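Write out the 3D structure for:
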Amino acid sequence: MRNRFEWREEVGRPEGVEVAKTRTRGLRATYPQVVPGASGRVLVVDDNKVIRQLIKVNLELEGFEVVTANDGAECLDVVHRVCPDAITLDVVMPRLDGFGAAARLRADPRTRHVPLAIVSACTQHEVEAAIAAGVDAFLAKPFEPAELVKVVRRLVERKDRRERKGASAGRGV
């Protein structure tokens, strides 16, 4: 019987795409706390309210500002208003799934460079489809909250570096 994560070694992926694999040890109590100065704004897209809340609380505990959407269609409705630094997408959602949302976000010049992470069971087919849609990272469900935070932090930092590089390239001749 194949381990569901064996595909990691078999699938070629573009440079810079990361895949995280973790297993949750069970839900632990988490308590919201106020963290001065947000680390970045994250749009969390998942049709499961419990998963959405779990991701939201864990990111907020680490200082991120979190906005949520119920599915890919709602994500596309709010993304321009909230201007996120990173987006997490579930794959299986009603109306518009994670792959469709990722493809549309990549096709829009205003959201083309927003880092995207798929948070899903991550079968080999899903990984290949997500790479084709242009995602930057994968996180397998069930996930460890610390791994989620680490992946999101890397994506936000990558976006910050890209923006700083773009700003310095645009100055002076």
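The longest helix spans residues 145-169.
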